[in-house]
Write a structure and sequence with these properties.
There is one protein chain. With 318 residues, the chain is an alpha+beta fold. It has 2 domains: 3-162, 2-Layer Sandwich (Ribosomal Protein S5, domain 2); 168-309, Alpha-Beta Plaits (2-Layer Sandwich), CATH 3.30.70. It contains 10 helices and 12 strands. It has helices at 71-82, 105-121, 127-137, 141-146, 181-191, 204-211, 215-218, 227-233, 237-246, 268-280, and strands spanning 3-20, 26-45, 52-58, 89-95, 149-154, 158-161, 168-173, 223-224, 251-254, 261-265, 305-309, 315-317. The strands form 2 sheets. Strands 1, 2, 3, 4, 5, 6, 8 and 12 form an 8-stranded mixed sheet that branches. Strands 9-10-7-11 form a 4-stranded antiparallel sheet. Strand 3 (52-58), helix 1 and strand 4 form a beta-alpha-beta unit. The chain is globular, with a radius of gyration of 19 Å. The two termini are 13 Å apart. The structure holds cytidine-5'-monophosphate. Residues 24-26, 28, 138-140, 155-156, 181-182, 185 line the site of cytidine-5'-monophosphate (C5P).
């Protein structure tokens, strides 16, 4: 018997970062937004005593670690330990979310593994319990379990719902090479060394724009306090952002700690137009950023994925 679950990538509509805490983390005020770009995890029982084994297929599969650092494997071990059983399981991950891309792909794998192993082992955890376990694995895992659009505080693990209506349409440009999240936070600290970093908040305007499903009102409010740090480590991303804006995006930001860049479109037709315009633009961009998807022959520009949000959190698949 095997069990399959999926979990979504996230975009941070707002990522406000506070000063470094004593434990090295930063207090955040973020608006997490799950989008319909999902990784899928299939788990099946392995012989007693054989432990966890992991295999990966899909985009960027080769750059996913298969050792004890893999968040999906750690999720299986944590669930097993907390329910007093041994973690003998084969985990197969189908990756669609960029690896080390700032869209919480590893957290999605962990969330999907928690849901899949819970069903496989009949451990009958509540959603709230899975989120609490997820928080021990990484700051973004509770949100990957929950999905939707939520405010995240603390490290990002304290979630409160956001009232939102309608659907937001995005173009996502995955860039290869990845960025290390700790390295981006460290650069944030360096850049902020001479200024006083304020405790982070989410402005009411953002919540009002989400409540009324107003992409145009939301666009100027997109905010990522890690963007300057990500751009200083990957200056080529400035060109990706510029190309998206020239192609008709309402707004563009680096996603989380990057390097993936995301662009907001007014509606689903404008998102298609944006994607095609980015692909058609004759740009210098291909000479510098490593693009995960090469443009089809004959197209000079940036290949983007069209995604929408909010999307549901980790869930079982048929
Ligand atoms: O929680 P997670 O393992 O995903 O975090 C990875 C790294 O990102 C942390 O070790 C820390 O350097 C940084 N981080 C942070 N503040 C947060 C979340 C992550 O400094 N709120």
């Amino acid at each position: 018997m095997n069990v399959t679950a999926s979990a979504p990538a996230k975009i941070n509509i707002v990522l406000a970062v506070g000063p470094a805490r004593e434990d090295g983390y930063h207090n955040l005020a973020t608006v997490f937004h799950a989008v319909d770009l999902r990784d899928t995890v299939t788990v099946e029982p392995a012989p007693p005593g054989s432990g966890v084994s992991i295999s990966v297929e899909g985009e960027d599969a080769a750059s996913v670690p298969l050792d004890g650092s893999n968040l999906a494997g750690r999720a299986a071990v944590l669930l097993a330990e907390s329910t007093g059983r041994s973690a003998d399981v084969r985990i197969h991950i189908n990756k669609q979310i960029p690896v080390a891309g700032g869209m919480a792909g590893g957290s999605a794998d962990a969330a999907a593994t928690l849901v899949a192993c819970d069903a496989l082992w009949g451990t009958r955890m509540s959603r709230a319990q899975l989120q609490t376990l997820g928080g021990q694995l990484g700051s973004d895992v509770p949100f990957a379990v929950h999905g939707g659009t939520m405010i995240g505080q603390g490290r990002g693990e304290k979630l409160t719902p956001v009232l939102s209506s309608g659907t937001l349409h995005w173009a996502v440009v995955p860039v290869t090479g990845g960025l290390s999240t700790p390295a981006v936070y460290a650069r944030f600290d360096e850049l902020a060394a001479d200024s006083r970093v304020r405790e982070p908040t989410v402005d009411d305007d953002v919540l009002a724009a989400l409540r009324t499903d107003d992409a145009k009102a939301l666009a100027p409010l997109l905010r990522n306090d890690l963007q300057a740090a990500a751009l200083s480590l990957r200056p080529d991303l400035a060109m990706v952002l510029e190309e998206g804006m020239k192609s008709g995006a309402l707004a563009g930001i680096v996603s989380g700690s990057g390097p993936t860049c995301v662009f907001l479109a007014e509606d689903h037709i404008k998102a298609k137009v944006l994607r095609v315009a980015m692909l058609m633009r004759r740009s210098r961009s291909l000479e510098e950023p490593g693009l995960r998807h090469l443009p089809p022959p004959g197209y000079p520009g940036l290949p983007a994925l069209e995604v929408t949000g909010p999307a549901p959190g980790a869930r079982l698949e048929e």
